């Protein structure tokens, strides 16, 4: 036998050893803890659209009589049902599922693998991660499954999904971890992508590793037709565990809150402010809150939070949200070419949500040219008339973009007529001369670009524009 043949056989042997012969033992082990969930909701009759019948159709009178009979019956309410999945996490009856499975439900019935049914009550929900915690009262200890460490799951690892797809009852599907760290729409998203079949009704069911530990809660699929095409998403267990612990303890989530608006650091932004590494979270606004009290400023780059490096905005949001309310943490920020360490006592995000951060007020007009073309933009200093036209706050100050060259870098990076430039080079600008001075200073310092703070409808963001022709 040649060397290549021997190597080929060795690879085949290794692959065969890594592939499980069967998932049957694992399925037998965990099935008693997986549940079907049936919810029912009372809805009013006649809330949906009526039948669409062409005018003059022979069926027109029939449907009119049908609707009249419904009105005579008083549009009596009817009960609507929905199906989902879940799993037991403790012998005393705590059950995890998706929030969207039980949302607005008047009645929740849990069906166990044995066929036994129990009514459940809602302990707490978290729409941000689509997780809900339920509780049933059983006469004897229930079989349950433990959570595993989702951070140890590797792309290519075998996984098994269980649930109630399409209302067919208990069902098992297997696949691998297709990818980690997927984000769909939420700030706290950390989804495991898998090709294990997930369909309607699987929502809220567990995704197991080969040790029988739950490493994800099956939540969503990507599909053009509503059926499984091998792209499913399970919320990572390390996110779920923190949520479940808070729901169990408080009946609600209590996430840390820093109180800043942030954006990712890009290469041109890093160059504009002299930051060596493209990392961290760039602060665009600091409303009243913990960060402002601690001295955080617009234009700071948050490099470290509570001893952990900050890679990007998504990472910072998760780090802060996973922190204890009221905890004092160290924040390392990059400001004016140097790092500073600040101490911040975190607030509670749920109490702060809905607050609209206010723009920082500027000072009085200090003269200079009223309108000029700079960096591909026609800029004008603020006037009361412009404030009224653009529906800006009376304290708003800065340079208004009156027009913009559509071939310019500024246009390419999203600036538009009506935008308000409030800072350049992390200093306030009120007249065109201020911006020109910042440009000259940046060139003298050897900078290739200038950082602008731009506001649109009150929302701030930083944009770096090249100073090289």
TrEMBL record:
Pfam families associated with the record: PDZ_2, Trypsin_2
Keyword Repeat: yes
Gene Ontology biological process terms, A to Z: proteolysis
Active site, UniProt feature: 100, 130, 203
InterPro entries associated with the record: PDZ, PDZ_sf, Pept_S1C_Do, Peptidase_S1_PA, Peptidase_S1C
GO terms under cellular component: periplasmic space
Catalytic activity: Acts on substrates that are at least partially unfolded. The cleavage site P1 residue is normally between a pair of hydrophobic residues, such as Val-|-Val
EC nos: 3.4.21.107
Subcellular location, record wording: Periplasm
Lineage: superkingdom: Bacteria
Domain (PDZ): residue spans on this chain: 247-312
Keywords: Hydrolase, Periplasm, Protease, Repeat, Serine protease, Signal, Stress response
Statement: the UniProt record of this protein carries the keyword Nucleotide-binding: no
Molecular function in Gene Ontology: serine-type endopeptidase activity
Positions annotated to bind substrate: 100, 130, 201-203
Primary location recorded for the protein, binned into one broad class: periplasm
Family to which the UniProt record says this protein belongs: Belongs to the peptidase S1C family.
Protein name: Probable periplasmic serine endoprotease DegP-like
UniProt source species: Marimonas arenosa
Phylogenetic placement of the source organism: Bacteria, Pseudomonadati, Pseudomonadota, Alphaproteobacteria, Rhodobacterales
């Amino acid at each position: 036998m040649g060397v290549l043949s021997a190597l080929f056989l060795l690879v085949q042997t290794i692959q065969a050893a890594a592939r499980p012969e069967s998932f049957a033992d694992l399925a037998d082990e965990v099935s008693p803890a997986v549940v079907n969930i049936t919810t029912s909701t009372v809805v009013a009759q006649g809330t949906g659209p009526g039948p669409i019948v062409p005018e003059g159709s022979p069926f027109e009178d029939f449907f009119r009589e049908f609707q009249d009979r419904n009105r005579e019956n008083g549009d009596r309410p009817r009960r609507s049902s929905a199906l989902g999945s879940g799993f037991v996490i403790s012998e005393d009856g705590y059950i995890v599922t998706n929030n969207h499975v039980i949302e607005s439900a008047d009645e929740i019935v849990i069906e166990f693998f044995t066929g036994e049914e129990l009514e459940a009550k809602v302990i707490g929900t978290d729409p941000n991660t689509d997780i809900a915690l339920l509780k049933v009262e059983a006469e004897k200890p229930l079989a349950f499954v433990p959570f595993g460490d989702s951070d140890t799951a590797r792309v290519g690892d075998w996984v098994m999904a269980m649930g109630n797809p399409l209302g067919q009852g208990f069902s098992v599907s297997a696949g691998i971890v297709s990818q980690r760290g997927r984000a769909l729409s939420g700030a706290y998203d950390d989804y495991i992508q898998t090709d294990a079949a997930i369909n309607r009704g699987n929502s809220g069911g567990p995704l197991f590793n080969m040790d029988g530990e739950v490493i994800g809660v099956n939540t969503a699929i990507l599909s053009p037709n509503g059926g499984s095409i091998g792209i499913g998403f399970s919320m990572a267990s390390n996110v779920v565990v923190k949520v479940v612990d808070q729901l169990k303890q408080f009946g609600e989530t209590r996430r840390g809150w820093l109180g800043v608006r942030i954006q990712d650091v890009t290469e041109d932004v890093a160059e504009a402010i002299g930051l060596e590494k493209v990392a961290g979270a760039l602060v665009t606004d600091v409303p009243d809150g913990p960060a402002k009290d601690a001295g955080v400023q617009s234009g700071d780059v948050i490099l470290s939070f509570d001893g952990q490096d900050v890679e990007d905005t998504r990472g910072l949001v998760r780090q802060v949200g996973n922190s204890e309310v009221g905890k004092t943490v160290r924040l390392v920020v990059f400001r004016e070419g140097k790092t500073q360490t600040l101490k911040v006592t975190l607030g509670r995000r749920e109490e702060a949500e809905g607050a609209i951060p206010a723009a920082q007020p500027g000072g009085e007009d200090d003269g200079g040219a009223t309108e000029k073309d700079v960096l591909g933009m026609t800029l004008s200093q603020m006037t009361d008339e412009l404030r009224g036209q653009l529906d800006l706050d009376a304290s708003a100050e800065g340079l208004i973009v009156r027009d913009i060259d559509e071939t310019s870098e500024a246009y390419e990076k999203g600036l538009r007529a009506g935008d308000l430039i409030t800072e350049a080079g992390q200093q306030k600008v009120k007249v065109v001369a201020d911006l020109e001075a910042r440009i000259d200073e940046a060139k003298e310092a050897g900078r290739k670009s200038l950082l602008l703070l731009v506001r649109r409808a009150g929302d701030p963001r930083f944009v770096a524009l090249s100073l090289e022709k």
